């Protein structure tokens, strides 16, 4: 088999919300070049799926654009996806509106693409199949909480991703596996990939392991906060500890925070979409427990987040009278747009201008506001301000126009500023309607799961390392202050008190000794061994010897039976004490400039939520931070597995292997 | 068939079918594919029951530990003696153990997985798929383990579940003692299994258990927990109360031995979890305690007697540095000689800490590990005793107590000074905890084993009684 080339590697990372994909490894690893929404639309025939909503439109109209030759509808159906694909794939649109379409903005639609369809109308009745690129109507989501719930749809999505990227023949495929996928699921995917894509090599990499590759660490606790679930995985020496792993802990993802905000703000006519955008905005922040909330009655409110869900109606409800003017619609008039101008002229240009005007207005507004509250310093950090404003974007349907009466409506982006009180700091507090859970909010649930997962790691000497190397990833964790708040919760609940840890110095312990390792933060391409860091976190044998000779139990032990395994002392849960004595997160690697910038710009411009068209390329303006480290790790791992190692360590399953052993052989390769 | 000969290519089918190995225990249930080195799925056998909005709900798996639910109560389908009591729930828990991580909730219907799409115009034969969809194990042979004293009725019930409910094409029921011996690479061994609810001693000869020698007693991990609880109750200066994490909303660090300063969480009585839930979660703290603090007195003599140079053993133990432990509510204390006392009664029944409220009656000397071994050896042919003594396999998670194997070695050398005593205890934690599963994994992936399976056809012909004839 000829060696694989960097530019041929296809990486796909399916998620419940977004599927990331990329063909080829760039010189310096970048965030995923393609982002596909993880949903498909039922096609014409049962069991077939299309990437976009296909609308059937029958109409009898005059030729709108005489120069266009009449087209058969069959052509329309086939040709249209291709052209749109390439348009989306290669040349990011420059127009503001096109890009500005939020992924999450349901019911949003795009204006100008339709126009091409509109121009092709003819005099006779004709069935038009047109792709409504932004419609969510009837969408089938193949994955829920990481689980694959609709297999045909999932496979259709994989096919769509594959076709869009159209890799060459000799392409190895790296697929990031969700922890919740069962072994049978993995077999089914393996079978599909080999038989449909005819790939020469296939690797299913567990998402937690991918994150470890991305961070360049061999031992870590990976907390992946998704849309509506959390996975907590303890990885020791690049091995996943399956036992006690927190898999798809439901109700702990980003949706929890949206729901909580909705619960807090529902009385102020907030919709779920508004809460979603509020959550994504940079004014929403999680403050560590005990931080006083800004405002006059800061100390009184402090207890609110800790109130048990059922105990009283105090908490957030009590705060509401303070925000009488919480929701100020400042630019109602914006909905009235010069429709004619849009229709006749260049839509995007027009909208871009409007955008600019609006920016100016907004600036004015904020300065005015600043002047109003002259008693306060102008630039307070968000966490000190009692009120803050975010810009809410919505898509408003325009009146149908004369020349395309039955066409799908056109939509226009519409933004307004909304002011929020201290509710924005309460996104992770316990819900009023906790439902089936008796929990105290998302952070505590996650903290408990982390505690459970680390306690289940059989090698007790590793537990302290695991506590000191938490990695929080996943787009659900993108809310400002999430990681810090989580750490604060763990510290509060689980970290042992210093008086307990003073005594630990009396007993032999080997976990806190810093080991002179060079390998932990090495960028993967320079990894000496393909899979393992040789000098990793092994137990220092000298230290073990020292601890055991000082142990009275060991010294007065007569020579035991010779068959007693001498090496067992390494694994025995002895000489270790309780954990955690401290909790820390792993620092993100600094040698990937693209990822670094992303992280830096992340907080600043979160205001614009997910600005990519569906299936379109992630343009430079999409601010993905290390939350998607799983994709960085996938690139590192593919480089190691496919290019450097080339199968020596059985990192991937080759086609030959598949032909011989069938899909169940993937069990040996599941990493 | 001679096991030392490699199987011929024709009969070797181990790679083609991935059998599922299910090793149900009292505390945890292990499941995984044959041929692998650890069970992929490890779940507590305990399950939770609660009602929400008038509907009864059940939860399985680790989730039981993590999220408290309103009115949650904890149950175990298996009785303290290791025999299933609640068959319906046992079936569900076991089913969860392999569907959650191995086979998936429903095997994908091959008609709809996109690989067998029919060309247009053909009628899809929907009905064929329906049956297989309901059967979680339709395409996997199943090897299960059982305790050596499992009654015939329970064995028949097990094969009925596997064949009729799960639709397994082939089944075998193996004794966990035999499997543990296989995991240690031995066909003959004396298997000492220290489990959660039971300790057992099983003489295995040439891959068969010697029924008359099988001994078991309830002094397992749960008994040690009860001893620790008894110790906590009698602790000075104040009794220690274990408050699980879920009941604590904030704690403040306190000095060792000082009463905890903690803010408790309260639940309205109609939503508060059941006492059984609290006990289960407390058990997590106790197992942490066992890992970090508890130690078995290494011997050679009992903790209560005097050592070789005249000083009482307790005195030596007292002078060795203690081990600190912090409880979830922040209370912390150093445990000195007490950490030896809680396990001493496994070897010396008189050393048991008295607690009249304990679930466990005070142990008798006959229930201790050395006595069980003695009784087991007395029950087998005198000729094979030396052979068994030189192949003592120690397994079970509670045998991971620090110093356990050393003490056992001492006790055996005193009981049997003549013959050579050899203890084989895997150093790897997971090998010790899952040895009967690992043995099953080895057995089920052997080509020679394939003639041992009870096939669906045989079951249909002979009925459940076939398990008595075939799985000895």
UniProtKB/TrEMBL annotation, chain A:
Compositionally skewed regions (Basic and acidic residues) per UniProt: 69-78, 92-117, 352-371
Organism: Aspergillus pseudoustus
Stretches with biased composition (Gly residues): 612-623
Disordered, as annotated region: 60-121, 286-333, 347-386, 550-583, 597-624
UniProt cross-references to Gene3D superfamilies, sorted A to Z: 3.30.420.40, 3.90.640.60
Extent of Low complexity compositional bias: 296-309
Family: Belongs to the actin family.
InterPro entries, A to Z: Actin, ATPase_NBD
Recorded superkingdom: Eukaryota
Lineage summary: Eukaryota, Fungi, Dikarya, Ascomycota, Pezizomycotina
SUPFAM superfamilies: Actin-like ATPase domain (SSF53067)
Ranges of Polar residues composition bias in the record: 311-327
Pfam families: Actin (PF00022)
UniProt name for this protein: Actin-domain-containing protein
UniProtKB/TrEMBL annotation, chain B:
Bias (Acidic residues): 119-131
Entry superkingdom: Eukaryota
Pfam families xref list: Actin
Polar residues bias (residue ranges): 302-312
Region (Disordered): 107-138, 301-323
Gene3D superfamilies tied to this protein: 3.30.420.40, Actin, Chain A, domain 4 (3.90.640.10)
Database matches in PANTHER family: ACTIN
Similarity comment: Belongs to the actin family.
The protein's name: Actin family
């Amino acid at each position: 088999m000829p060696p694989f080339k960097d530019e041929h590697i296809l990486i796909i990372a399916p998620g419940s919300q977004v599927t990331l994909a990329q063909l080829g490894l760039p010189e310096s690893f970048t965030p995923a070049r393609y982002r596909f929404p993880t949903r498909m639309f039922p096609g014409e025939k049962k069991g077939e799926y299309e990437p976009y909503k296909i609308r059937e439109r029958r109409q009898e109209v005059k030729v709108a654009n005489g120069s266009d030759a009449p087209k058969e509808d069959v052509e329309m159906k086939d040709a249209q996806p291709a052209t749109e694909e390439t348009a989306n794939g290669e040349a990011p649109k420059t127009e503001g509106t096109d890009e500005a379409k939020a992924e999450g903005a349901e019911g949003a639609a795009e204006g100008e693409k339709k126009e091409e369809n509109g121009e092709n109308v003819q005099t006779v009745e004709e069935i038009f199949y047109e792709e409504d690129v932004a419609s969510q109507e009837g969408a089938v989501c193949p994955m829920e909480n990481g689980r694959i719930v609709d297999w045909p749809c999932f496979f259709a999505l994989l096919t769509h991703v594959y076709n869009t990227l159209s890799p060459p023949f000799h392409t190895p495929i790296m697929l990031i596996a969700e922890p919740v996928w069962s072994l049978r699921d993995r077999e089914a995917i393996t079978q599909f990939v080999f038989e449909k894509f005819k790939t020469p090599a296939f690797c299913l990499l567990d998402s937690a392991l991918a994150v470890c590759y991305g961070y360049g660490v061999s031992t870590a606790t990976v907390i992946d906060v998704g849309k509506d679930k959390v996975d907590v995985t303890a990885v020791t020496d690049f091995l996943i500890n399956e036992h006690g792993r927190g898999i798809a802990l439901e109700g702990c993802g980003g949706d929890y925070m949206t729901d909580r905000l909705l619960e807090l703000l529902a009385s102020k006519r907030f919709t779920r979409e508004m809460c979603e955008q509020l959550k994504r905005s940079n004014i929403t922040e999680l403050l560590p427990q005990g931080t006083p909330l800004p405002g006059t009655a800061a100390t009184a409110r402090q207890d609110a987040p800790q109130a048990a869900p059922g105990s009283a109606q105090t908490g957030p409800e009590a705060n509401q009278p303070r925000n009488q003017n919480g929701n100020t619609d400042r630019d109602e008039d914006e909905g009235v747009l010069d429709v004619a101008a849009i229709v006749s002229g260049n839509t995007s240009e027009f909208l871009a201008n409007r955008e600019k005007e609006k920016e100016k207005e907004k600036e004015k507004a904020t300065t005015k506001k600043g002047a109003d509250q002259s008693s306060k310093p102008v630039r307070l950090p968000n966490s000190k301000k009692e009120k803050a404003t975010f810009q809410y974007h919505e898509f408003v349907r325009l009146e149908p126009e004369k020349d395309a009466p039955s066409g799908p409506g056109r939509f226009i982006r519409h933004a307004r500023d909304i002011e929020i009180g201290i509710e924005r700091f309460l996104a992770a507090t316990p819900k009023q309607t906790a439902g089936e859970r008796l929990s105290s909010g998302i952070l505590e649930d996650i903290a408990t799961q982390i505690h459970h997962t680390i306690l289940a790691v059989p090698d007790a000497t590793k537990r302290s390392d695991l506590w000191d190397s938490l990695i929080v990833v996943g787009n659900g964790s993108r809310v400002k202050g999430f990681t810090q708040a989580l750490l604060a919760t763990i510290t509060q609940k689980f970290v042992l008190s210093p008086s307990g840890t003073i005594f630990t110095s009396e007993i032999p312990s080997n976990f806190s000794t810093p080991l002179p390792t060079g390998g932990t933060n090495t960028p993967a391409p320079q990894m000496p061994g393909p899979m393992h860091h040789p000098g990793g976190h092994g137990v220092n044998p000298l230290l073990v010897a020292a601890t055991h000779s000082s142990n009275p139990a060991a010294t007065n032990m007569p020579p035991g039976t010779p068959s007693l395994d001498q090496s067992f002392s390494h694994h025995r849960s002895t000489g270790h004490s309780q954990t955690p004595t401290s909790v820390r997160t792993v620092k993100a690697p600094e040698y990937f400039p693209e990822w670094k910038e992303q992280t830096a710009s992340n907080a600043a411009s979160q205001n614009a939520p997910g600005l990519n068209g569906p299936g379109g390329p992630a343009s430079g303006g999409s601010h993905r931070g290390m939350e998607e480290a799983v994709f960085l790790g996938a690139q590192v791992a593919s480089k190691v597995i496919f290019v450097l190692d080339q199968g020596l360590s059985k990192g991937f399953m080759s086609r030959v292997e598949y032909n011989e052993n069938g899909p169940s052989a993937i069990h040996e390769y599941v990493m | 068939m001679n096991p030392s000969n490699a199987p011929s290519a024709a009969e070797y089918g181990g790679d083609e079918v991935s059998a599922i190995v299910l090793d149900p225990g009292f505390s945890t249930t292990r499941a995984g594919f044959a041929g692998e080195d650890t069970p992929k799925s490890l779940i507590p056998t305990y399950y939770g029951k609660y009602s929400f909005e008038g509907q009864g709900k059940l939860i399985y798996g680790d989730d039981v530990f993590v999220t408290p639910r309103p009115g949650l109560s904890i149950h175990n389908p298996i009785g303290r003696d290791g025999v299933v009591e609640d068959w319906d729930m046992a079936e569900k828990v076991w089913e969860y153990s392999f569907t959650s991580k191995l086979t998936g909730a429903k095997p994908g219907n091959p008609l709809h997985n996109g690989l067998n799409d029919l060309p247009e115009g053909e009628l899809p034969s929907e009905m064929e798929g329906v049956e297989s969809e309901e059967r979680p194990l339709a395409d996997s042979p199943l090897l299960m383990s059982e305790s050596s004293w499992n009654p015939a009725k329970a064995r028949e019930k097990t094969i009925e579940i596997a064949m009729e409910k799960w639709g397994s094409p082939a089944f075998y029921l193996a004794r966990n003692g035999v499997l543990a011996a296989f995991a240690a690479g031995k066909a003959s061994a004396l298997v000492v299994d220290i489990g959660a609810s039971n300790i057992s001693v099983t003489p295995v000869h040439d891959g068969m258990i010697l029924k008359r020698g099988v001994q078991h007693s309830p002094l397992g991990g749960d008994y040690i927990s009860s001893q620790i609880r008894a110790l906590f109750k009698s602790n000075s200066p104040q009794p220690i109360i274990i408050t699980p994490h879920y009941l604590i909303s904030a704690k403040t660090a306190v000095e060792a031995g000082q009463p905890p300063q903690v803010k408790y969480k309260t639940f309205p009585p109609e939503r508060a979890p059941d006492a059984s839930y609290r006990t289960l979660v407390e058990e997590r703290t106790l197992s942490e305690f066992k890992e970090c603090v508890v130690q078995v007195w290494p011997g050679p003599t009992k903790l209560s007697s005097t050592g070789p140079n005249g000083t009482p053993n307790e005195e030596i133990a007292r002078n060795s540095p203690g081990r600190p432990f912090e409880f979830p509510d922040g209370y912390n204390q150093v445990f000195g000689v007490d950490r030896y006392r809680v396990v001493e009664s496994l070897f010396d029944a008189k050393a048991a800490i008295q607690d009249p409220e304990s679930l466990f009656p005070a142990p008798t000397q006959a229930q201790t590990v050395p006595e069980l071994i003695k009784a087991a050896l007395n029950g087998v042919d005198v000729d094979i005793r030396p052979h068994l003594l030189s192949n003592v396999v120690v397994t079970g998670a509670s045998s991971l107590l620090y110093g356990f194997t050393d003490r056992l070695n001492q006790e055996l050398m005193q009981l049997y000074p003549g013959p050579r005593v050899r203890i084989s205890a895997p150093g790897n934690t997971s090998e010790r905890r899952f040895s009967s599963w690992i043995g099953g994994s080895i057995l089920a992936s052997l080509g020679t084993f394939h003639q041992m399976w009870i096939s669906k056809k045989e079951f249909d012909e002979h009925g459940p009684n076939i398990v008595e004839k075939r799985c000895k």
